Every structure is written in C-alpha cells, then in structure tokens.
Amino acid sequence: MARKTRRLNLAQGHDGSERGQGWRGAGSGRALVIFPQYRRAAQQQAGKVARDPERRLAEAVGLVQAIFLKVAYQEAVSLSKVVPATLLGGGLVARLCELIADLEIEVAFVDAQLTPVQQRNLERAWNCKVIDRTGLILEIFGERAQSREGQLQVELAALTYQRSRLVRSWTHLERQRGGLGFIGGPGESQIEIDRRLITERITKLKRQLEQVRRTRGLHRKARKAVPSPVVALVGYTNAGKSTLFNRLTDSKVFAKDLLFATLDPTLRRLKLPGGREVILSDTVGFISDLPTDLVAAFRATLEEVVEADLIVHVRDIADPDSELQRSEVLDVLRDLGLEERLDGSVIEVLNKIDLLPAEQANIVLNQADRDGRAIACSALTGQGAELLLQAIEDHLALGRDTIQRDVPLNDGKALAWLYSHGEIIAREDDDAAAHLEVRLAAADIARFDRKFPRKRSDA
Question: Could you tell me which Gene3D superfamilies the record lists for this protein (predicted)?
C-alpha cells in the first residue's frame, strides 16, 4: 500500500529550475551521503564537537532512509579546513562529481549546515539536488507530521529555512515588476516579493501557533482541576520512546525503527502499581545539531515536557553513542529552562538492554542497581517495565504527605476520589466506615477536605 506523505517544497534548485522537484518522485531516488569529519583546526573553525565518523555517517544514512531514498554511496570525508564557497575542498568536489555522474545520483545529502551559497555552488558543480542536515530533517518532519499543530510547526520552520535561501543568486527571482507610473523608479523584484510573502506567512503561522500554545495551556489547566501528574517521555530519536509508551499504556502508537517516527505528542492515562493514575506523554525525539528554528517551532509541543511533573529520559543503551546522545538530550532540556530539574525530576531508562551481549547487559543491570534513578529495561520484551512503573510511583510520592481519613462505606464518591488521586497505604473497614491511610499531595489533601467536608472525620 502506498504511503501517503506530505512533502515540503524544499526541492527547488538554486538556479530557479525545477530539476529538484522529481528527486523523491518519478526518478530512481538514488542518494549520496557525505559526512564531513572536521579535523581539529576545522572543528574549532566550525564550532563542532568531535564524534565517531562511522557512527555519525550511520545516523546520516538513517536520516536519508527515513524518507525512503536509496543510498547508493556513503562516505565520511576528512576536512582540514572549511572552504567558504563549497564547504568541501575543490579536489573532493571534483571526485564526488564523477561519482555522482557514474552512479546517476539524484540527491546528495551533506550532513552539515550549508550556507545558501555553498548549497548553490555544490548543486552547480554536481548537477543534482543538494540538501543539508536542516533541509533533510525538515523533509522528514514534513512527511511525518499528522496533526494540524504539527503541520503548522513544520511549515513555520521550513519557511524560516527557505527565507534564508532567497539569496541574490536565485536568477529567476531577480525580475522586477514595474512601480507605480506616477512614482517612477525601479519596481519590486521577484525576490523581494517572495521574501515579503514568506514573512507574512511566517507572521500568520506564529499567531496560529500562539493560539495552539494558549489552547494547550487551557487543557493543562483543565487537567489540573482534576489533577493527574504528567510524566513525559523524552530521548534521542529512535531510542524506543514510542515502543515503551505502547508497552506501558497498552496503546498502538506508531513505533518503528526509523528516525523521528513520532512527531505529534500523544497523551494516555497510565495506572501505577499503587492504583494512582498519571498521564503519560510521548514526545518528539531529539537529535544532535537539531535546527534552532525547528526547536523554536516545536516549543508549543515541548511545553508538555516543561510542564511535566516527572521526566523519563529514554536512552538506547545499546548504541555506542549513547553517552553523547544523553548529552545532546540534556542540552535541549537545558535550553527549555529545565536546568534545575535535571538532578531531581528525571528518571533515566537504559532501554534496549535485550540487544546487549549477556556480559555487557549484566554490567548495565549492576550500574542501574547502584544508581537509584536509572532503570535498565527492554521496551520490546517488557523486561524492567514493572521496575520503571514502581520508580515513577516512588518519585511522584516524594513531597506527598501520609494522612489518615475515616470515610463512610456508603460514600463511594469519596472513596473513589482517594483511590484515584492518592496512594492507599493501608485500609481497615468496620460496619460503618473505611479507615484509610493514604498518601496525597498537599493540594489534594486540601481539595479532598473541601470537597467532602461532612463525609469524613480526621483520625
């Protein structure tokens, strides 16, 4: 069955031609993947952090495969310096030009942030569509976004990206339209018209997303009126968040071994071992070098993380870059203003332990036992799921008070309220009342006493 996709208009060539419009359609879909590995001097010049080139190249290939292109050639290339005109050196550009022609490559993915000039020059040199890391991630997001909110967010990020591509070298945009006859002088050029139209659309999208933010705020306020704590799953893309979400909530959220399989946030109720209900939120995955404009566009979605009572950081412990991915996720959380919460309100889930060799898995399990905030598990097999649920319950219990209440046995509403909002520690019944020891947040204690003032007596 054909996959229905929503594509962004990022494929137009910098010379104004429409050659790029078929790079994901009628053609072969053959792609070349290049990861520029900076040497020390070039790293400092580009502001990059060293990373294993083979792992980064594998991630780049995964990004390309996420939009179902065929990777015909891949290479991690070493750069001694950054060339302003093309990023890559002249000899490398020439060598790759021959490869692209021989392999009939339609799109070349350079896993870096290209300037508009660099992208244009590489397209002219290679005679194929060239796309950088930001452009490819936007393509993936454009295909995966299903909700109206997600589509607005992606469009805002895409237009912000496109606006920076409207450089004077776009020859088809340099035509001028005549000014008013009685004013005289040059008219408005096509590039100016396009820039103005994009700016107007961006302004409209920001207004719409602000309305989305207010609506989300109202929804959160409504949830707090009948409070259930919110637990947000975060993590690097493809760490297994959606699989874990499905495991814990018995849901069928789309989960696949693809980068950015989840874009739109999903909320489900989850019952903890003690009977307390929480709301579990599945969120968009993070990735290294995530475009700033994309983070800004998805801020309304990420507010679910900011407002969460507890953050569960899901890590792919079987990935050799797991520690680096952890740092990337924590950096994004800091950017969201969650610096102070990283020490006390985050549980780490060491996921995919089933993919590790037995000896290494035992090491991870022992590490998790020593660290009270780390849980080793497999979302696929269910190993460690019960431990995670208990850890969530224990963390949410911090800051809650244990109280005693006597509730008449015929007062079903009061009993149900305590069971749904608190953790019942002990219960003894006599002929008239249930004598409960229950753990509740301070706000819930006050709310219960207001809601049921004559239907209970303090022990």
Answer: 6.10.250.2860, GTPase HflX, N-terminal domain (3.40.50.11060), P-loop containing nucleotide triphosphate hydrolases (3.40.50.300)
What CATH number should be reported for the domain holding residue 335?
Answer: 3.40.50.300
Binding residues for GTP: 235-242, 260-264, 282-285, 351-354, 378-380
- Predicted confidence at residue 84, as pLDDT, reads 92
| Residue at 297 is within a domain | yes
Annotated binding site: 235-242, 260-264, 282-285, 351-354, 378-380
Which residue bears the tokens 């237009």?
A: 159
- Asked if residue 14 is part of any domain, the answer here is no
- Domain boundaries, position 156: 145-175+188-225
Query: pTM above 0.90?
Result: no
Task: Identify whether residues 292 and 372 lie together within a single domain.
Answer: yes
Residues at the binding site for Mg(2+) are 242, 262
275 within domain boundaries? yes
